[in-house]
Amino acid sequence: MKLVNQQLIKNTNMKHLYASIYSNPGISRTNLAKLTHLSKTTVSTLVDELIEREFILDSGTGESDSIGRKPNCLQVRMNSYYTVVLNWVENTVYTYLIDIAGTSIYEEERQLGAGDTYISCSASSLYDSVLKQCNSNRILGVCVVVSAMIDALHNEVYSTTLSLPSMGKENLIDALQNAFPEYPVAFLEDTACYAYAEKVYAGITEKNFAFLNFSRGIGATLFIEGKMLGKASGSFTQFGHYSVDSNGPLCVCGNHGCLETLIAEKRLKNRIPEFGTIPSLSNQDTVTFADLCKAATFRDPTALSMMRQMAWELAQALGNLICVVNPSLIILGGKIPALGEIFLEEVREDLKKVGFRKMVDAVTIRYSTLQSDSFLNGAMKYFFDIHYCFTSEDSSSFFIG
């Protein structure tokens, strides 16, 4: 038991040091000890091990305000270790090899053929392609990212946006657990990965915030007191199926008037006739948030009316979310930033009419500033921060969320 505790403490300290160097490139050992509140001896010993194992490097002497020997600068080592991120979308497997310093060094996509499953296609991508890009012992783990609710308690996956091919009597989670025996595997939900990327790369300091993802569906991830609610499984919130109109259109989940039936991007084309016509969009097979924003910018009355209604519907749901969890920040991400400032200002104004005023007035609402593929880095960083262990080489580890 004592050995196990020592390993846990060492792993925690090594992660703390690595994260501090990641966030403060060029930091010296002395400043690292001050920042992490670890002893200079502990910092020196663990930093030496991180250097020997090629997670970080000593880039030479740097500048110092004090008199005497100049301190050495510590940096995260690039192109040394990687995480494989597999993104399952419709009938396609997208594969990425992500350097733990944050760079995507390889990517490919494979369509599922006759008799293929997501798992068989993912395995062939990893073993036939990815392992040609780097040594197998340089891969720390595999992340499988889906737009779905991953229910660890019942060992099931639910989705209204991802069509899972039949696996017969074989359970998807059980099969995935045994698919890559050489590596730890994490099964993650995409909105949670986007949210974690926001937390790490957008410099969020708020402990209580919500990230809403408007992509293939509408998802939400909540951080309460600095911790992700329910881990990265998507099983604790289903914001897209919050109903704002009991007489609204029927949703695939069985409810009426869910947000996904009203303001999801894929619903825009069919919803326009409720408000009139938009001549500039009438000949398009699909309508995007960007299309609607452009029409509203040029003062098309139907586009403006539709955008106002969508803002009101979102504001109703946000008002209730705020009353329940009291976030200080709400980030709208995915594709919805393409609706522009017109929509965002409407949402802000409508929020003043709903919810508990004291809480609503204290909330900042903004769009995400990260790119649409930020979930890849979010998945990599989440796996490394939460699941990777410096003191264990157990390749059979399997994590849900």
User: How do the strands of the widest beta sheet line up side by side?
Assistant: 5-4-3-6-9-15
Q: How many whole angstroms does the radius of gyration measure?
A: 23 Å
Whole-number tally of structural domains: 3
Structural class comes to alpha/beta
Helix content: 25-40%
CATH architecture of the largest domain: 2-Layer Sandwich
Q: What is the name of the CATH class of the largest domain?
A: Alpha Beta
Overall pLDDT level: 91
Number of helices: 13
Which residues form runs of ≥5 with pLDDT under 50? 64-68
Gap from first CA to last CA? 27 Å
Q: Which series of helices and strands comes N to C? A: HHHEEEEEHEEEHEHEEEHHHHEHHEHE
Describe the largest sheet: 6 strands, mixed
Identify the CATH homologous superfamily of the largest domain: ATPase, nucleotide binding domain
CATH topology of the largest domain: the name is: Nucleotidyltransferase, domain 5
Principal-axis shape: globular
Number of strands: 15
Beta fraction of the residues? Answer: 15-25%
Features:
401 residues; Arc Repressor Mutant, subunit A; Nucleotidyltransferase, domain 5; 3 domains; six-stranded mixed beta sheet; five-stranded mixed beta sheet; 13 helices; 15 strands; 20% strand; globular
Write the layout of secondary structure elements.
Blueprint: H1 2-23, H2 29-36, H3 40-52, E1 56-61, E2 72-76, E3 82-89, E4 92-99, E5 104-111, H4 118-128, E6 139-146, E7 149-151, E8 156-158, H5 172-177, E9 185-189, H6 190-201, E10 209-214, E11 218-224, E12 227-228, H7 259-262, H8 268-271, H9 289-297, H10 301-325, E13 329-334, H11 340-351, H12 357-361, E14 364-367, H13 374-387, E15 398-400
Parallel strand pairs: 3-6, 6-9, 9-15, 10-13, 13-14
Antiparallel strand pairs: 1-2, 3-4, 4-5, 7-8, 10-11, 11-12
Helix pairs in contact: 1-3, 2-3, 6-13, 9-10, 10-11
